[in-house]
Design a protein that fits this description.
With 107 residues, the protein is mostly helical. It is 46% helix and 7% strand. It has a two-stranded antiparallel ribbon.
Length: 107
């Protein structure tokens, strides 16, 4: 599955890096947004996880997080999905999930 994802990412990144304004992806003509970014999150040392393939690893810069910044991650997800007020919605979503996690039992 990861090697298929790596091939799809490659087919998206190559036209952008060459300066194309549009591309064909799985038979559909798509306009490229020059401001898009692509991030992946993996945890290859977790039990039951595979190491990402080399062709995927070479396309991304590794970084480590000691504790994920849930608010920042949620804000970025909201903005990347096209919400205008992603920063505001991200703060609210994190607050909502924090309350829910406090109310749920640890079962």
């Amino acid at each position: 599955v990861l090697s298929v994802a790596a091939q799809m990412i490659l087919s998206i990144q190559e036209p952008r890096l060459s300066g194309c304004k549009a591309m064909t992806f799985e038979g559909q003509q798509l306009q490229l947004d020059p401001t898009y970014e692509l991030f992946i999150t993996t945890c290859p040392r977790a039990p039951g996880r595979n190491t990402p393939p080399a062709n995927l690893l070479t396309r991304f810069r590794p970084m480590a997080l000691s504790m994920p910044n849930s608010q920042f991650i949620c804000q970025q997800m909201m903005c990347s999905e096209g919400f205008r007020f992603g920063d505001h919605l991200g703060r609210k979503m994190v607050g909502c999930f924090e309350i829910a996690s406090e109310m749920l039992s640890k079962q």
